[in-house]
Amino acid sequence: MALFGSFDSSASALTANRLRMDVISSNISNANTTRGEYVNGRWQPYKRKVAIIEPKKEASSFQNFLQMAANKTGRTVTNGVRVTRIMEDRTPPKMMYDPTHPDADARGYVALPNVDMLKEMVDLMSTTRAYESNVTAINAAKAMAMKALEIGK
Amino acid sequence: MLSTPTMSIFEKALDAATLRQRAISNNIANVDTPHYRTQSVVFEDELQKAMAKSSTAFTAYRTNEKHLPFGMASLQDVGPKLQVDKAVGPMQNSANNVDLDFEMTNLARNQLWYNALVQQASGQYNKLRTVIGGK
């Protein structure tokens, strides 16, 4: 029954969005972290992380083949979404002049993380909304499945 | 007697609604995925065409599956078709064309449509039960 496939894809989106939210909160909480990693005797600031997402394709799954054959759709439904990896934002760190800071360089500049709080908040909003939309989709599928049980009752 | 043409149409329509629910779920799931194109299901128009013409139009009789269909598509051959929208719709920066408002509306509409279908199919069986019960 294809409705269960719909649960799977919405569930994968919930997982992906939750992970994106984790990444965003990591970015926000580390917005001022100057000691992200220790490289060659120097502290590097935290680098903003980005979750890379792509559609999840399960073209070779039995369920998809069965559905293609049964409905003659000739095409498989992609099966949700997944986070393939978490990458670092390559924009250079923000430099701030503060000679008193323990991590300041010889000229008195401190490298701060390349985290833009505004950007993170906007991402957080859109992630929350996406999460909620997927919950709605799951509820709709659930209501449909329950309704289908009423046939012939 | 249980597999009347009406029931088989209900069955096909329910299949289509289920597939559509899956396609919509996927579109919503991929709302932020770069380069994702929306998927949609075409069915009702094809069904309507087949139903309107089926009584009057000429259809070729197929005795083998390899025969090419010509004339009007018969009711048996109508099924839900999944398509990927190539059209330039509302486009985000990431070349993704999911319109969340449209998808959510479609989700609600499809759910109501599904419920209506189930109710009608159920009604058919209830009528049969009444006949059998003879009350």
TrEMBL record, chain A:
It comes from the Bacteria. One of its GO terms (biological process) is bacterial-type flagellum-dependent swarming motility. Keywords: Bacterial flagellum, Cell projection, Cilium, Flagellum. Residues 107-150 form the Flagellar basal-body/hook protein C-terminal domain. It is found in: Bacterial flagellum basal body. The keyword Ribonucleoprotein does not apply. Its main location: other. PANTHER family: FLAGELLAR BASAL-BODY ROD PROTEIN FLGC, FLAGELLAR PROTEIN. This is Flagellar basal-body rod protein FlgC. It comes from Aneurinibacillus migulanus (Bacillus migulanus).
Automatic annotation (TrEMBL), chain B:
One of its GO terms (biological process) is bacterial-type flagellum-dependent swarming motility. Signal peptide: none annotated. InterPro entries: Flag_bb_rod_N, Flagellar_basal_body_rod_CS, FlgB. Residues 12-36 form the Flagellar basal body rod protein N-terminal domain. Keywords: Bacterial flagellum, Cell projection, Cilium, Flagellum. It comes from the Bacteria. Pfam families: Flg_bb_rod. PROSITE patterns: FLAGELLA_BB_ROD. One of its GO terms (cellular component) is bacterial-type flagellum basal body, rod. It is found in: Bacterial flagellum basal body. Belongs to the flagella basal body rod proteins family. Structural component of flagellum, the bacterial motility apparatus. Part of the rod structure of flagellar basal body. PANTHER family: FLAGELLAR BASAL BODY ROD PROTEIN FLGB, FLAGELLAR PROTEIN. The basal body constitutes a major portion of the flagellar organelle and consists of a number of rings mounted on a central rod. This is Flagellar basal body rod protein FlgB.
